[in-house]
Amino acid sequence: MGILEGKVVAVTGAGRGVGREIALLCAREGAAVVVNDLGGNAEGEGADLTPAQQTVDDIKAAGGKALVNGASVADPKGAASIVEDAVQAFGRIDAVVNNAGILRDRIWHKMSHEDWNAVIDVHLNGCFNVSKAATPYFREQQSGSFVHFTSTSGLIGNFGQANYSAAKLGIVGLSQSIALDMARAGVRSNCIAPFAWSRLIATIPATNEAEALRIERMKTMTADKIAPLVAFLASDASQDVSNQIFGVRKNEIFLFSKPRPIRSMQKSEGWTAQAIADEMLPAFRGSFADPGERSGDVFGYDPI
């Protein structure tokens, strides 16, 4: 008996990389899996069901249950079809894993509206669309789990990824509100920031030696390391875990803090702009976040 025996899980972007490993493990743990993948390239262009079909074929060859869905999560009707396929084929839906993503990395002053909208549509709107489609079923059965993928690019920041960073931090806000709104229905919502080598990561250019070394470290972080946490969060074993942000880096699992006030200063007569410069700034400066900090600075050590 696997931890997901009898469950039905929908995994978006499951034709390759992290999503594929999630789908394979969920199936091994006993779940019937809807393998969704449009099959486009790293920038979201084109469509090819071959990767999704290969994942399904591999699941079935191992004795599991799965089906292909080739819809775009950015299309509300397509997203709804992912959930409908699960219910029609397997009778229910127990967990949604919002993993689908694309990259259109551009330095800020060169980022177009098209680059912005394409990434927001797949990541943030895609999470909304698929989650919204599953919600009526979760409410009716008084159970369910949303597992959304965020990124340290959103939680910490990164060069050339304003669109991706905004979408990924937006997903955290979405997950938190879903968790609060759906708690009364026994539904939970959590985020994972994965560290894993994928075809999307492979598109990021190395502009200096430090970045090249970071990319080489990323190549040692395989996608299969992410899947166990997803399977846990999709299972009944996590029934009291909600509204959290996790990370997985090789064999390391960590829990992120959330933004909370760290310093406070009150002035009874109110503040002027000059008083802020003269009094607040010196008091707060020692607690300022590093304006140039990136994920590699926070996670500067090598995982085991």
UniProtKB/TrEMBL annotation:
Pfam families: adh_short. It comes from the Bacteria. InterPro entries: KR_dom (IPR057326), NAD(P)-bd_dom_sf (IPR036291), Peroxisomal_Beta-Oxidation (IPR051687), Sc_DH/Rdtase_CS (IPR020904), SDR_fam (IPR002347). Residues 7-203 form the Ketoreductase domain. Belongs to the short-chain dehydrogenases/reductases (SDR) family. This is 3-hydroxyacyl-CoA dehydrogenase.
